[in-house]
Amino acid sequence: xxxxxxxxxxxxxxxxxxxxxxxxxxxxxxxxxxxxxxxxxxxxxxxxxxxxxxxxxxxxxxxxxxxxxxxxxxxxxxxxxxxxxxxxxxxxxxxxxxxxxxxxxxxxxxxxxxxxxxxxxxxxxxxxxxxxxxxxxxxxxxxxxxxxxxxxxxxxxxxxxxxxxxxxxxxxxxxxxxxxxxxxxxxxxxxxxxxxxxxxxxxxxxxxxxxxxxxxxxxxxxxxxxxxxxxxxxxxxxxxxxxxxxxxxxxxxxxxxxxxxxxxxxxxxxxxxxxxxxxxxxxxxxxxxxxxxxxxxxxxxxxxxxxxxxxxxxxxxxxxxxxxxxxxxxxxxxxxxxxxxxxxxxxxxxx
Length: 351
Prior knowledge:
It is a single chain. The protein is α/β, with parallel strands linked by helices. It is built from ten helices and 16 strands. It has helices spanning 13-24, 64-67, 90-110, 146-150, 181-199, 227-236, 256-268, 287-298, 324-330, 338-345; strands at 4-8, 28-33, 52-55, 71-76, 116-122, 130-133, 137-139, 166-168, 204-210, 212-214, 242-243, 250-251, 253-255, 276-279, 285-286, 306-307. The strands form five sheets. A seven-stranded parallel sheet has the order 3-2-1-4-5-9-14, with helices on both faces. A three-stranded antiparallel sheet has the order 7-6-8, with no helix packed on it. The chain has a two-stranded parallel ribbon with strand order 10-13. α1 (13-24) links the parallel β1 (4-8) and β2. The longest helix has 21 residues, at 90-110.
């Protein structure tokens, strides 16, 4: 890969690390970012001076006048993320994620773009992870009900017999089952990018389904922040991290430096390895594991995490990755384990 790379959302948490790695490896980089108020209160101080920055949003058609000039690769990181506050956020998610992506792709098509396109996807498109029933094999449990969650019945049950289920890692062929507005918009982004690549010969498209990304530059405690950031913000204020449900939710926590490297590999991979990839550590851990490691790394005076039994209806119980496809086809293997990552994250700068 040579020439100029356009990184949308390149002033954000993950996007800025992608920009740094691209610059470090000798690429010219142009960034377009609207500094959405849900993620930014001001322009961040960590921006790479070697990149070119265009302050604009993808929802604005005028953004694309010169932004695509000279661009040979596109890394689409821009999105409104997280579960948000409630369903009143729906139109904002659709405007930022769906309409923004559609306008970007329309502009690329109008300019005859041919080259790699890498999308920042998300594991939220899967909904619940993989589950097996002792009697019925692999099953897809229905969405958990408010009644069950209020009663502390957090584990999904077999839809056929009601038996307890055993979670297992999901691969990229698992049928999507989005269970929040954010998840629905991330799946829509994948569909739009896939259609664009099929209709425009010469476009090599990869969707990177990020699992639970953490690391420096995460936004502080907001309804749009990840759970690691929320716990980190609590510890910084001397408060015990509030662990929802019973803390037994299984996730795959992957460091942002590893995620940036996966983007570089996908941009360089070529058309023969285009596809959909889980970007994950391949080592599942519980939410309580992460909270305990973070509190331990914060020091002996840090308060211990507390289980609250609270829940968010849009959350799923267990979802963790089979990371084999990214390893075999992209050559991607996560390098930062959770213990080392939490030691760094405990004192890392948040946005």
